[in-house]
C-alpha cells in the first residue's frame, strides 16, 4: 500500500522551507520560516488526508503527523 504524504523540507538553493508531495518534483509552496511552512503543510495534509512529514535542516525526518486513514487508531 502506497501512502501519500506531504513533506516540509529545507530548500538548499534558495534557503527557507518548501512543501512537497510524495513523488512530486515541484514545490507546493516556499516559506522563509519552518513554522510558516508547517502551518500551511498541515492545512494541505488535512485537506488531502495525507501523512505530514517534517524534516530537519539536514533532511532527516524530525516528526510525522497522520491526517489520513490511520491503520492503527488509538483504542477508546
What does this structure look like?
The structure is a single chain. With about 80 residues, this protein is of the alpha+beta class. It has a domain at about 5-55. It is about 20% helix and about 35% strand. The protein has one helix at about 35-50; strands at about 5-10, 15-20, 25-30, 50-55, 60-65. A hairpin with a 5-residue loop joins strand 2 and strand 3. The radius of gyration is 13 Å and the shape is elongated. The chain starts with a strand and ends in a 10-residue tail after the last strand. The relative contact order is 0.23.
For the largest beta sheet, what order do the strands appear in spatially? 3-2-1-4-5
Largest sheet: 5 strands, mixed
Topology as a string of helices (H) and strands (E)? EEEHEE
Rounded average pLDDT: 88
Query: Which structural class is indicated by helix and strand composition?
Result: alpha+beta
Question: Helix coverage percent of residues?
Answer: 10-25%
Question: What gross morphology would you assign?
Answer: elongated
Radius of gyration: 13 Å
Low-confidence stretches: none
- How large a portion of the residues is in β-strands, by DSSP E? 35-45%
Kindly report how far apart the N and C termini lie: 26 Å
Count of DSSP-assigned helices: 1
- The count of DSSP E runs of length 2 or more, i.e. the number of strands, is 5
